[in-house]
């Protein structure tokens, strides 16, 4: 378990140990908003582990205020995409040596209507929109997963992307500050329509564990079934350009 908050991580790990009887649950510090932290985590993992069968890129932030990371990146694109992009690339050697292996990236239906603004990825020259930024980052997840599958074809490493559903978690805490009316709308009837965290992780588990899914590498899933992405999620030229720009931003000289 790669987590930013080690106190909360240990609490979650202990719950897993008790509920499963598996004492071999390890936590390590990882802050996806920091290029240094991602590189340090990857180095420590490669130095201490023999294999990596499944990498689940699950961390995320949603519609937060305009914050910049220590590297000068807008936070939503940094955490939701650039951190996962760098982490996956740094772990590719052990993923390849562990093949067949899988990379599962959690995106969102919010990628629909998203746009990768290469001229101003971090909202430096245009008014910041938390929703536009979130959509851009979730579209980046879809395009990254698609391009990763293309680059890894024949390597034994598969790449999948998914929409987990609308889940009742703390992820939406920033939404209510932008749209106070939503706080009122989130009444009991609305909550009944949202997924629990257990329900929300099922598509992630489907992509991680379903046998013989390798032939669907590069595809997008929702509710444990393959779904078509929005047209903007199928643009291979934009996917390649995003890959190259992401590598430049995080200082990655060699990629797959």
UniProtKB/TrEMBL annotation:
Similarity-based family: Belongs to the short-chain dehydrogenases/reductases (SDR) family.
SUPFAM superfamilies reported in the protein's UniProt record: NAD(P)-binding Rossmann-fold domains (SSF51735)
Pfam family for this entry, one: adh_short
Organism: Xyrichtys novacula
Keywords: Oxidoreductase
An example molecular function term from Gene Ontology annotations: oxidoreductase activity
Full protein name: Retinol dehydrogenase 13
The keyword Oxidoreductase appears for this protein: yes
